[in-house]
Design brief:
Blueprint lengths: L1 H40 L12 H48 L3 E5 L5 E4 L1 H7 L26 E8 L2 E9 L5 E7 L1 H15 L9 H14 L4 E8 L2 H8 L1 H19 L4 E6 L2 E7 L4 H13 L5 E3 L2 E3 L3 E8 L10 H17 L4 E4 L2 H23 L2 E10 L4 E13 L3 E3 L1 H11 L2 H16 L7 E5 L10 H12 L6 E5 L8 H14 L2 E7 L7 H5 L4 E4 L1 H5 L4 H16 L3 E4 L5 H10 L3 E2 L8 E2 L3 H14 L2 H4 L2 H5 L1
Parallel strand pairs: 11-12, 14-16, 16-17, 17-18, 18-19, 19-20, 20-21
Antiparallel strand pairs: 1-2, 1-5, 3-4, 4-5, 6-8, 6-11, 7-8, 9-10, 13-14, 13-21, 13-22, 14-15
Helix pairs in contact: 1-2, 6-7, 10-11, 12-13, 13-14
The chain binds ligand C2E and magnesium ion (2 copies).
């Protein structure tokens, strides 16, 4: 019983304690829970000091601080979110502007080949396409939607409404595709134009040398049938340009190109190699007969004059060809060699008067090789002093004595022996060595003549090429000064070719010579271009009748020419000399026609300076022994 009461008392005490706990802690806990809920809902904490035990209050304070921190973080996050939203908006509109301002059309497809986005340019070419539309609805070419690995690129061409598009595709994540379309119609047109300009001559619009060489290389590589390659040169084009002006020259070049294209036909390629040179390659030319016939037709294209600016201008053409027979193509034969061979043939053709053509033969190359070797030898000869001057007398038939000598170059080649100036002078002219060689001859001749009796003159040949030298007048003055030779004893011999180019410059140099006191003689008269205009523009002292007229004096025409040259020289108050006299008959005819000064093997061949005294003596004896009968001849006596 006592135990029961005690148990009740214990339970009662426990209940009372529990009640006390629930009343004192429970309220505080509830308040904490309430505060925590308020914090969680974002409401600000109630002001005031929380009630309850210290620990509980600490927790409540901590909760409050946490709440304040959370609100701060929330506020910061909200403001950042606002900023990001603004930035995102801006970026979106920038992206939109960029997309729509692109010159290319752009579209993005997802992995199912449906449109994700596109720009305005895209709608211009493909119409308004809604996102989600399958690509096949607007891209008819299925190859353009073929999947690509991520970042893999592919480029294709597409024609849309007459425009040429360059399509660039790039693989994206999840089999998506980014495709751009660029209208390259204009770009293509410009690049084609540039390509054309780079490969064509601006004046004639014909393929240029580089382009022609490519075409020729292709033809040489593939064709099995015969091939003809021709190089065409307009002769005397420089003087046409100088006389009529460059616009006329240009018009002739254009017309010449047109004529060649017409003659060569559609299978051929005609090119302007540069300057006044054209080239033609014609396939299907079987034999050399056909090749020559075609070359002849090219030459004949110059038969009719060129009508430019109401002027009729005559021009002639030279043609050098290379014929490659069917099956004879060597793999090593390239355009450069073929064109070189054409040039060699052309060089031969140009040696002929008027229009001409020549077909390449291997001997021409050998000749070129020899010329190259000689060119090197020539240089060496100048350095080593292998040149010498020979002297040939001029005979004054009236006074029966030598009036002077012509200095003629000789080359004592250590291996080949004596080489004729007819061979090496043209070579020296082509290589420019004539300037040094001519100066040497001039100085040596003046030096030699300064040792002779006062009444003997010395005649020195000057090449037309020497007149291009800016120091020519100075060189002559220097040679006279160094030798002490009186200028009146020096005679200069020039040929008609001198007046082909730069007539005015030549005239001013000749006048300068005249001022120095020299005499000037026109050599080989009648063989050159014989435009008599220069004779009236510059009064020569002497005309030399060319030996070709003298050689065949039996022909009436030659006598007529000789007679007219003598008449002309009298009319223009010039003296006259005939060269190449080999027989007493020639001498007699010339004398009877009124020619008094003569030169030729009949009197003496050109000989070294050491023979000079001998020559003078021999000529004097000749009159006594060989010519007395001639001298007594009626015609000579009458003259
Ligand atoms: P050219 O000035 O007309 O000289 C006359 C040429 O005819 C010389 O030939 C001479 O030897 C030759 N000859 C003279 N009389 C007769 C004859 O009766 N019969 C024949 N068959 N020939 C005769 P060469 O010495 O061979 O000279 C040839 C050409 O070389 C010269 O023709 C001249 O144009 C040029 N030449 C010679 N020396 C010089 C020079 O120092 N400077 C320049 N620029 N040219 C020169
Ligand atoms: Mg001469
Ligand atoms: Mg001559």
């Amino acid at each position: 019983m006592r135990n029961g009461v005690a148990l009740v008392a214990v339970f009662g005490a426990l209940f009372g304690f529990a009640m006390f706990l629930s009343r004192s802690i429970g309220r505080t806990l509830r308040e904490m829970a309430l505060r925590a809920r308020e914090l969680a809902s974002g409401a600000s904490a109630k002001p005031g000091v929380p009630k309850g035990p210290r620990e509980v209050r600490d927790v409540l304070f901590a909760l409050e601080e946490m709440g304040a921190r959370c609100r701060k973080i929330e506020a910061t996050m909200l403001s950042e979110a606002d900023m990001m939203a603004v930035r995102l908006n801006r970026q979106e509109s920038q992206l939109g502007a960029a997309l729509n301002n692109m010159t290319q059309a752009l579209c993005m497809l997802d992995g199912q080949k449906r449109l994700v986005l596109s720009n305005e340019v895209f709608s211009r070419y493909f119409g308004e396409v809604a996102p989600g539309t399958p690509a096949r609805a607007f891209l008819t070419d299925p190859s353009l939607t073929l999947p690509l690995r991520e970042n893999e690129m592919a480029t294709d061409l597409l024609e849309v409404g007459g425009a040429v598009m360059e399509v660039k595709r790039r693989g994206m994540l999840a089999k998506g595709l980014l495709i751009t379309f660029e209208d390259i119609t204009e770009k293509q047109r410009i690049s084609r134009r540039l390509e054309h300009v780079a490969g064509h001559d601006g004046l004639t619009d014909l393929p240029n040398r580089k382009n022609f060489a490519e075409v020729l290389d292709q033809r040489l590589a593939k064709g099995r049938d015969g091939l003809l390659v021709a190089v065409v040169d307009i002769r005397g084009f420089k003087s046409i340009n100088d006389t009529h002006g460059h616009p006329v020259g240009d018009a002739i070049l254009k017309e010449c190109g047109n004529r060649l294209v017409r003659i060569a036909g559609p299978k051929a390629t005609v090119s302007r190699l540069g300057g006044n040179e054209f080239a033609v390659v014609l396939p299907g030319v079987r034999g050399t007969g056909d090749a020559d016939a075609f070359a002849g037709a090219l030459v004949a294209s110059f038969d009719s004059p060129f009508d430019v600016e109401s002027r009729r201008i005559e021009a002639r053409g030279s043609v050098g060809t290379v014929h490659i027979a069917a099956g004879q193509r060597m793999t090593s034969l390239g355009a450069d060699i073929v064109l070189q061979n054409c040039d060699l043939a052309l060089y031969q053709a140009k040696q002929e008067a008027g229009s001409a053509y020549r077909r390449f033969k291997p001997a021409m190359r050998e000749k070129l090789q020899r010329r190259r070797e000689m060119e090197l030898d020539l240089q060496k000869a100048l350095d080593e002093g292998q040149f010498e001057l020979f002297y040939q007398p001029f005979i004054d038939t009236e006074r029966r004595r030598v009036s002077g000598f012509e200095a003629l170059l000789r080359w004592q080649h250590p291996v080949s022996g004596m080489i004729s100036p007819a061979v090496f002078i043209p070579l020296a002219e082509e290589t420019g060595l004539i300037e040094r060689l001519g100066k040497w001859a001039l100085e040596a001749a003046c030096h030699e003549a300064s040792k002779w009796p006062e009444d003997l003159t010395i005649s020195v040949n000057l090449s037309a090429v020497q007149f291009k030298s800016p120091t020519l007048v100075e060189d002559v003055r220097g040679a006279l000064a160094a030798s002490g030779l009186a200028p009146r004893r020096l005679q200069i011999e020039v040929t008609e070719s001198l007046f082909l180019d730069e007539g005015d410059r030549v005239l001013s140099i000749l006048k300068e010579f005249r001022r120095l006191g020299l005499t000037i003689s026109m050599d080989d008269f009648g063989t050159g271009y014989s435009s008599l205009g220069y004779l009236s523009r510059f009064p020569f002292d002497k005309i030399k009748i060319d030996q070709s007229f003298v050689r065949d004096m039996g022909r009436a025409e030659n006598i007529a020419i000789v007679r007219s040259i003598i008449g002309l020289s009298r009319a223009l108050n010039m003296s006259v000399i005939a060269e190449g006299i080999e027989t007493p008959e020639q001498m007699q005819i010339l004398y009877s026609e009124g020619c008094r000064e003569m030169q030729g093997y009949l009197f003496s061949k050109p000989r070294p300076s050491s023979d000079l005294a001998k020559m003078l003596m021999e000529v004097a004896n000749q009159w006594r022994s060989d010519f007395p009968s001639l001298a007594a001849d009626k015609s000579m006596a009458a003259a």
